[in-house]
Amino acid sequence: MKRFLLFVCMIIIITAGIPFLIVKSLSDYKRVEETEKISVYIKAEDKVCDMEVEQYIKEVTAAEMPADFELEALKAQAVAARTYLTNRVRVYEKTQTPEEHKGAMICTDSTHCKAWISEEKKKEQWGDDYKKNWDKISNAVDLTKNLIITYNSQPISAVFHSTSSGTTENAKDVWGGDVGYLVSVKSEGDLKSPKFNSDAEFSMEEFKKIAEEKIEGVNWDNGLIDNIIRSDAGGIKTLSVGGVSVKGSDFRFMYGLRSTNIEIEILGDSIKMYVKGYGHGVGMSQYGANYLAQEGKKFDEILKTYYSGVEIEKYNSIFE
User: Fold this and answer.
1) Is 285 in contact with 164 (CB distance < 8 Å)?
2) Between 275 and 319, whose confidence is greater?
3) 3, 33, 71, 122: which is deepest, by most CB within 10 A?
4) 72-107: per-residue pLDDT in tens?
5) Whole-model pTM?
């Protein structure tokens, strides 16, 4: 009789447990199915891949910011990267993706979207430091999961750069359009960045040759360099080269300079350019963010320092 009762009890326990296992299995399956993916054009390999959104954000963060930066700076970077992706996806859903994306929602060309590097490639680069570094970046992304930056309840275009010249740029001065949350702010920590100062020197012959190749209508009888117009942050908005007006951003790339905050000195048969900052200077400065984190600022405070009038909110889907 005892054996019979024990057998009955076992049957009841097993039977009762089956629905739980089924529910748990279905729940796990649902979570897997609900993991959002994004199509990414990997430029270096000329192919489009589907990636889990949060893994993509980790790989962007790993590519965009040094792993030895403060955790709060990495969290700010993760939220900015996720916000940028969300903004681009929602814009492209209403219009269409650029040709450079080869049909994907985002690309890995840092000059067009954001830098990206696979976890496997980072593992090779980091070597023995891989686990420590990847765990830190993963933690920064996981701790900010589903958080984005909004302005008027909409995800912002969360642009960022390495190092400002001590003051970030107005979007209007760099790209020509007013953006309420991308306005000039002080960024004191950038002066401590190893990328704050740089310079470049060209012979007069080399300088003129580059200009003649890149600028239509250059005439040196009209002067060398003049009519420099600067932004509030000090970046060159426009200048005249050989009598032709050129945008500061075009001049920067023409001569391979780190930013548009350029002082120009003519030294006889050569021209020397002294540069402050690294990048377009708009939005969050990464070295500035790390400085603020070292000063005890949390990631949301850092983001609200560089993006004016914004909120940090949760989202349900990047495709909403």
Assistant:
1) yes
2) 275
3) 122
4) 999 999 999 999 999 998 888 888 888 888 888 898
5) 0.86
